[in-house]
Every structure is written in structure tokens, then in C-alpha cells.
Amino acid sequence: MGTCMTIAEVAKRTGLTPHTLRYYEREGLLLREVDRSSTGRRLYHEDDITWIRLITRLRATGMPIREVRRYAELARAGDATRRERLELLRAHRRRVIERLTVIEEHLKAIDYKIEFYEECCRPLGRLTSSAL
């Protein structure tokens, strides 16, 4: 399976804490059971990193833990679940787009206020002696 990495190395590569990685494992979010060394330490592989990055993106875009868990369950079940995984991702994408639309409206309101204050705070220009 290639080079093994410790939980500390995976944390550094993914930006997650070891605590979060252990939580993901406990919650059944990982694609497969994490390998262990002869002393019981967790050993991760490159494909684990790829999966962790995917679920991190799903979480960062607001997918609830229960849906990430369901996605992982479906992925572990194999190719027969591809259609269900597709539908799960499509539904999540629709929710993300809806949130982006709302955020864009909020951004427009903020931009409007910035323009207002920039106009208010713009110096009137220097008065010359001929303008006095």
C-alpha cells in the first residue's frame, strides 16, 4: 500500500488535529479501518489522505456528519451504490449553491455600504487661495 504515515504526519498534511482524525475514525467517516502498527499506533496511507481531504471538503461546505457517514458507508459498500452516492452529492451541491446565493446577496449589501462610506470619507480636495 505504499508508505505509512503517523497520525501526526497526517495531521500536518491535512491541517486537521489528531483529535479530529480520531473523531472521524470513531464516527465511521473513514473509507476503511485505519491500519495499526505492532504497537497499536495508527498508520495511514496516501489513499487515506485523499479520502480525508474529500470528507474535510464536504464538512467545510456544510455537509452534516450523518450524511458524511452515509456517504462513507455507501463508498465502502462498493460500485452498486454509485447512483445513491451521486444523488447524495447532487443534493449537497444544491444546498451549497443556495448558501452561496444568500452569501452573494449579503456581499452586495456590504459592498453598497463600503461605497457609501468611501464616498462620505472622500476628501473634498484642497482649497486653493483662489477658491477662498
How does this model look, in words?
- The chain is mainly alpha-helical and 132 residues long.
- The chain has one domain: Multidrug-efflux Transporter Regulator, Chain: A, Domain 2, CATH 1.10.1660.
- The chain has helices spanning 7-14, 18-26, 46-60, 65-77, 82-121, and strands at 35-36, 42-43.
- Strands 1-2 form a two-stranded antiparallel sheet.
- The mean pLDDT is 93.
Helix segment tally: 5
Give the mean pLDDT: 93
What is the name of the CATH topology? Multidrug-efflux Transporter Regulator, Chain: A, Domain 2
CATH class: Mainly Alpha
Could you spell the SSE succession in H and E letters? HHEEHHH
Helix percent band? 55-70%
Largest β-sheet summary: 2 strands, antiparallel
Which value, in Å, is the CA radius of gyration?
Answer: 25 Å
Structural class: mainly alpha
How many domains is the backbone divided into? 1
Tell me the strand percentage band.
under 5%
Main β-sheet, spatial strand arrangement: 1-2
- Level-2 CATH architecture: Orthogonal Bundle
Q: Name the assembly state.
A: single chain
Q: How many individual β-strands?
A: 2
